[in-house]
Amino acid sequence: MGIAKWFSTGFESVREYSDELDRKAEMAKNGQPFIPNLILADGESRTVRFITTTPLTFREHYLPNAKGKKFYTCLEGMIDETTGERIECPFCLSGNKATFRGAFLVMDRDTDRWTDKEGKVHEVSGRIKIFKQGIKVLKVLDKMSAKRDLKEWDIEITRTGESTDTQYNFIPEEKFPLTEDEIKAIDEFKGDKTLLDKLAEELAPISVEEAMTVLRGGTPAKKPSGTSYQDDDTIGF
Q1: Are 190 and 198 in contact (CB under 8 A)?
Q2: Which CATH class is domain 35-215?
Q3: Average pLDDT for consecutive 10-residue bins of the chain (237 residues)?
Q4: First-last CA distance in the chain
Q5: What are the DSSP calls for 47-86, one per residue?
Q6: Do 175 and 184 meet the contact criterion of CB atoms below 8 Å apart?
């Protein structure tokens, strides 16, 4: 019987484990496993690496509430686990029209800066985010993906315009593989799930009861997946 190597030697393993702890602490501090949206203001550019190239497509409602604008995944087509019957989406029944969306996971190359409650300034780059768009942008990405593997290139995304008058430009920058640290960070992010499963989990609809609460002007018991209760007007139409 062979002897398994259960140990390592040298300080390299110490540094690797220290880096792993730092990454996990950073993820916890920055709100992971909650996945933020990639948000661009008018005229802003960000460089990203797509880590999923197959869009997760669904329909989404836009509703205002006391805390600002919100986007909610449509419940239409879901099955009630108790009765086995199809669920009728309360948002649809209220007359709110759902819009077609597609979502990807991207690694944001740019730096996010924020100040915590204690006044300490934080900076982090390489965060994994949701890039969620409408049919016009999805058709552009479909054409791009037919010519190149989006996961192999860093791509600069620039937004111009606001609300329904919004355009996104995509400029491939450099083609190079992810680093070992980036691959490790992605593996830690998804855990024992696939990246698409992780994305689907984040975008899953709220319950019928929570949807009714929203329609009454209240706030659901948990945050709608992928929103973070912010004014998110960056969805492409």
Answers
A1: yes
A2: alpha beta
A3: 54 71 58 77 96 95 66 90 89 94 96 85 91 96 94 96 88 92 94 94 92 83 46 41
A4: 62
A5: EEEES--S-EEEEEEEEEETTEEEEEE--TT-B-TTT-PB
A6: no
Residues 11-48 have pLDDT tens digits of 777 776 676 666 555 655 554 557 899 999 999 999 99
234's tokens: 């960056």
**pLDDT score for 74:** 95
The tokens of 48 are what? 């990203």
Question: What's the gap between Cα 69 and its chain centre?
Answer: 17
For residues 175 and 152, give the distance between their C-alpha atoms in angstroms, rounded to a whole number: 6
What are the CA-CA distances from residue 219 to residues 31, 65, 206 (Å)?
A: 20, 8, 11
d(CA 236, CA 35): 19
pLDDT number for residue 222? 55
97 torsion bin: left (phi>0), alpha (psi -120 to 50), beta (else): beta
Q: 27 is written with which tokens?
A: 């993820």
Q: How far apart are CA 96 and CA 71, in angstroms?
A: 12
pLDDT at 154: 96
Per-position DSSP letters for 116-168, written without gaps between them: -TTS-EEEEEEEEEEEEE-HHHHHHHHHHHHHS-GGGEEEEEEEEEETTEEEE
